[in-house]
Amino acid sequence: MFDFDRWQEIYYVLKKNRLRTFLTAFGVFWGIFMLMIMLGAGTGLQNGTTQNFGDMATNSVFIWAQQTTVPYKGFPRGRRFNYRNEDVKALRTEIPEIKYLAPRLRGGNFGEGNNVMRGLKTGLFNINGEYPDLNRIDPLNMLKGRFINEMDIEQVRKVVVIGTGVQDAMFGKEEEPLGQYLQINGVYFQVVGLFRSKRTGEQANDENKNIFMPFTTLQRTYNYGGVVGVFAITSQDNISVTVAEDKAIDLLKRRHSVAPSDDGAIGHFNLEKEFRKMTGLFFGIRLLVWIVGTGTLLAGVIGVSNIMLVVVKERTKEIGIQRALGATPVKIIGQIMTESVVLTILAGYLGLVAGVGLLEGLNYLMESSGSASDMFLHPGVDFRVAMTALSILVIAGMLAGLIPARRAVTVKPIDALRYET
Question: What span, in angstroms and rounded, lies between the C-alpha atoms of 299 and 28?
Fold first, then answer.
């Protein structure tokens, strides 16, 4: 392997016909280059999509009330109903599969004019009533202060947690928001926390314009009584949230006289199911990329094998002389396979470096220019994936040289010496 004469001979063979060597190497280079680009693009697409989930618990479900679609117990079709505070206790006590439960409610009608005031400043923001469990289901990046806690709920405290979008609109650049007051629906609330969304793009901008207050405080501020808007639920560990979802829907149907067969009366969104679909989709994309990329790579390797057959034919007389001087078949096979592997690995390594370099350059340009998309983020290739591709390339290079090498040793020395090129 470390025979200097052998490496000198390999260099001479590859240098002898530079154009042929270049075109053969380019096939391998392009194959692994395209494999890296496709894998990196798939990773960027997956990162952009999953980033929009932030750190939200994937085993979560959201349930809200809609119009009934089936008459039941004397109630007509099209009846509207609301969940109540009593439903919260029922869900917690009757469904042990539930781990976190966060009733949610939005204050006022969003879009009907400015709803927040501070001195001469006014703004229009989402006002949400929340429970502490929400920050366990859909965590926020708390920059200062704290989130809503149980004491806020029990004592109906007039406190709020604001996003950075609210801070920018209602406070000065150097002004500390914690401890300050905002007027909402004619009531003053003290700011106890500042957060930034963990999502990206427009979703992050929208979430950063949220104002969270204790759920019970919002009910009283907007005279909602005991109304609940949405239930956010996560299941216990190692239990599918679909189990908790089905039980919760059945319980809510019984409590609000909804027909068991009325699937349209209760709206629900199962994030676990959607996340599984998305995971399956990206698995399919990665599998397709590997199939297409490996096929392209093998096409280049087959080119190497064909060229090595030509090289063996051109060197028939040389091989005959080596055999006549005592060269063993193993040495001849090793020589031919080494040439094939060297050409394949050299071209493949350059293609891998070029592909990864292009992805890193694209990622740098996207971040430096601020043009990162919600659907495409941090394209790149995992180191283990790159090493796997390189290992495939080494094996393919060995196989590419095997056929020409076996053909070389089948030629009898006496016939090889008589061969005229």
Answer: 8
Which residue, among 123, 127, 167, 117, has the nearest Cα to 143 in the 3D structure?
Answer: 167
Structure-block tokens of residue 215: 């759920």
185 contact partners, CB below 8 Å, separation of at least 6:
107, 108, 115, 127, 221, 222
Radius of gyration of the chain (CA): 34
Contact 340, 25 (CB under 8 A): no
Per residue in 16-53, pLDDT (tens digit) is: 777 777 877 788 888 888 888 888 888 887 777 776 66
Question: 13-43 in b/e burial notation, b at 16+ Cβ within 10 A?
Answer: bbeeeeeebeebbbbbbbbbbbbbbbbbbbb
Apex 79 CA angle, 78 and 82, nearest 5:
135
Distance CA(184)–CA(206), nearest Å, equals 19
Alpha helices, DSSP H, located in 17-162: 18-51, 85-94, 134-137, 150-155
Using one digit for the tens of pLDDT, what is the confidence trace for 357-415?
888 888 888 777 665 555 666 777 887 878 887 787 778 777 777 767 676 666 666 65
| Separation in Å, CA 56 to CA 138, 304, 358 | 4, 49, 32
Amino acid at 420: E
Hey, what are 236's tokens? 């216990």
Calpha distance 391→386 (Å, rounded): 9
Model pLDDT for residues 253-273, shown as the tens digit of each residue: 999 999 999 999 999 999 999
- Residue 208 near residue 165 (C-beta atoms within 8 A): yes
Q: Strand pairing of 83-84 and 141-145?
A: unpaired
Closest-CA residue to 274 (of 286, 262, 282): 282
